[in-house]
Amino acid sequence: MQTIQPAVEFHATTTLTREEPKAGWMSISELSKNLNIEQYTLRNWEKILDIPISHRVGSKNTRYYDRKAILTFERIKFYVNDGYKLKNIHKKLEAEG
Hints:
Blueprint: E1 26-27, H1 28-35, H2 39-48, E2 55-57, E3 62-65, H3 67-81, H4 86-96
Antiparallel strand pairs: 1-3, 2-3
């Protein structure tokens, strides 16, 4: 039996639930390893730059991020490595939409 997966539209919205995250979502620990950035730094960027937590799972409320949030963190890392300060990154992210 073949399972057909619908096209997934990613939206960065806060959802507090105990359900498993959707395919393609990444936990904060996975994202931290992929970007080579500490988890506390990601949480700091999330807070300062108003990045919504896409999903929380389990008794520890593990953060999971959808594709849109993951791409945002990748852009932030690029800007930080390029020498931008967080307040300027925030303006750039708002301008980019």
